[in-house]
């Protein structure tokens, strides 16, 4: 899995945990629907730190809380 895949999976997990829609996350994080769709569908190959920070803010958490997940420490994580 790439970092981008892990970010997308973390978003999907948090959406489910927080019972939040993708639309609500887009509104809260000020990320356009097309950009969010590219992240979640794996078409975006370069999720930036600023985008991760906006997503974390959309979930009402810090970037450290967003990254505090076993997905980001997996042995299978490919660093490009």
Task: Provide a concise account of the structure shown.
The protein is mostly helical and 80 residues long.
Written description of the protein model:
- The protein is mainly α and 80 residues long.
- It is 57% helix and 0% strand.
- Helix 2 packs across helix 4.
- The protein is globular and about 35 Å long.
- The model has no long low-confidence stretch (mean pLDDT 93).
- Counted beta strands: 0
C-alpha end-to-end distance: 11 Å
Number of domains: 1
In CATH, the topology is named: 434 Repressor (Amino-terminal Domain)
Structural class comes to mainly alpha
- How would you name the CATH homologous superfamily? lambda repressor-like DNA-binding domains
Q: Radius of gyration, rounded?
A: 12 Å
Query: Would you identify the regions where 5 or more consecutive residues have pLDDT less than 50?
Result: none
SS field, number of helical segments: 5
CATH class: Mainly Alpha
Quick one: biggest sheet?
A: none
The averaged pLDDT comes out at 93
Overall morphology:
globular
List keywords for this structure.
single chain, 434 Repressor (Amino-terminal Domain), mainly alpha, about 80 residues, globular, 5 helices
Secondary structure elements and pairings:
Layout: H1 3-17, H2 22-29, H3 33-40, H4 49-58, H5 63-67
Helix pairs in contact: 2-4
């Amino acid at each position: 899995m790439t970092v981008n895949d892990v970010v997308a999976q973390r978003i999907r997990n948090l959406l489910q945990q927080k019972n939040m829609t993708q639309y609500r996350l887009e509104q809260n994080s000020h990320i356009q629907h097309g950009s969010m769709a590219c992240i979640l569908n794996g078409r975006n190959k370069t999720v930036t730190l600023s985008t991760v920070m906006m997503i974390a803010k959309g979930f009402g958490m810090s970037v450290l809380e967003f990254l505090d997940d076993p997905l980001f420490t997996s042995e299978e994580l490919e660093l490009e």
